[in-house]
Batch of 4 targets.
Target 1
Amino acid sequence: RTPGQAAGGAAAAAAAAAMGPGKNQKQFEIPQNKVGLVLGKNSATLNAIKAYSKAQCFIEQRSPDDDKATVFVVGSDREIAKCKQTVLAVVDGSMSVSTLFTLAGVPLP
């Protein structure tokens, strides 16, 4: 397991722990077969998403539907929206990982 990747309720618990004043939590689903793409090697892609959106982001791989993984996001409404938009753009291919790293200001792994 890599940071940001959780099993059996751990992502929900981590998201709850990240809550604070002015923070909200949202969740959405991505295809299970795209989890590796969103995480990246050693969670590099997920960390770039966090750096770019300024939101905390956790992926729960074990969900009732084995075809879906749940993404938990904690932050301001704006941070959550930016994180969700970025994750979905990486998933659907409309944002390349290299573009994400450039926008996040982090070096490619």
Target 2
Amino acid sequence: VITCGDGLAAVLLALSSAMVGANCVFMTKSLSGLIHTYFTEHKPGDPYPSPHVITGTTLVAVAIVVHVAFWLTRLNSALRRYPALFIVPVLQTSWILFTVLSGGIFFGEFE
């Protein structure tokens, strides 16, 4: 049984965790855009991509790994603290909400 204070703490934990998890999806979509741009604009005679492309792609990839690790750590922490029948739907709903909002705003998917 979850009390009012525990329920609020659980929802706040889910919201803060889901924001980071949604950011991971956002960065993964950005990384795929970077890779797509590289392969569509890369000329066959060019030996290597510019250092800026490699650095930017590497930084985004590392940030994705860090965000996934944080999201999974918080997910496991929430499952240890609260009943799964309560926290899993709250986490998933929050994650879906933030993912749709961030993608819709940044990539113009609402237009």
Target 3
Amino acid sequence: LEAAVARMLELGNADQLVISGVRCFVQLSCLGFILAPIFATNSPTLVMAYVFGFMVLVSAYEAAARPKVTYPGMFSKAIISIGISLLVSGLLLLYIVQPDPWYDAQYVIPLA
């Protein structure tokens, strides 16, 4: 719909809108395939492995790869800073929300 409006208004970005829409659909579908078994099993090992093993590593990689100016050890420092902030927010989650069980993927993954 947005691409049709952009084409009608001759904005010149209709092709980019279609490509980004398809890319978004593919990425969210892949994420759904990854998260479905995690939510189904609700295992503490699987939830924590996803949060710390996947989310922290990917976000640290993106944080270290994006800047134009980098320095040695930037990736490891990004892992440490994101990991510490995740631990703090996790402790707040346990204190404020008090999910039962504490590793409930319904609460832990969106707040991580």
Target 4
Amino acid sequence: YKQVPYTITKNVSFDLFTKTAYRTFILSTAAAATTAATSVPLSTKLMIPLTSAVLASVLSCVSSQPGDMLLSVANANGGVRKTHDICRDIMKSDRGFRGFFVGIKTRFIHVGIIV
């Protein structure tokens, strides 16, 4: 349920965030510099991937949480209920669509510690 969206979101968003940040940094420093050749400081080389990893982790949690919720409910019931029935029950609950995101704060903390 959850590994494919998590992995795709993590890899693609990390790549996009990192490329965009480096491109923005290089363009802004090249415009301010008198020469076209600019080097990226070590602190920036560390902060860009770290920030990109944090943002990618948040997006990955959001994209995979519904699948994780379905998997948790299915396992809690011994795997006898169909996914369609679980989805319907979550949507009919008082939380509605938000029911798919129960426990996401805990996942943010978990993934934040890993990053």
